[in-house]
Amino acid sequence: MRLKVEIEFQRGVLIARLAGELDHHTSDQVRAQLDEAIIRRQCEHLVLNFKDLQFMDSSGLGVILGRYKLLKQKNGKMAVCDATPAVYRLLEMSGLFKIMTCYENEEVALSGMEVVS
């Protein structure tokens, strides 16, 4: 299965909805799409929605950490939401939740990040 990335801007936040598999085959594509959207829109905040993400490996973790570092340099915030149980477990085991929060859904993520529209 391939990966589909849907990008939307809401309340000044880039929201990326990922569906499929984020692995070594698709990580470069996602990295390029997110970087382009962040730079083009001068975006400082990012929510990654993993509701339809069925699989992620260490390459996916690298994509997440790279975007986190990029946004941190801009004093931005980043969060994930709607993670499936398997993806949530990988994120938890990696220690990612020490630097960002996983929210129940996009609405809660936007409110939890305290991003002003």
TrEMBL record:
Stretches assigned to the STAS domain: 3-113
Any single Pfam family the record assigns to this protein: STAS
Xref: PROSITE patterns: STAS (PS50801)
KW Phosphoprotein (keyword) present: yes
Record keywords, A-Z: Phosphoprotein, Sporulation
Keyword Phosphoprotein recorded: yes
Family: Belongs to the anti-sigma-factor antagonist family.
UniProt function note: In the phosphorylated form it could act as an anti-anti-sigma factor that counteracts SpoIIAB and thus releases sigma f from inhibition.
Name this protein carries in UniProt: Anti-sigma F factor antagonist
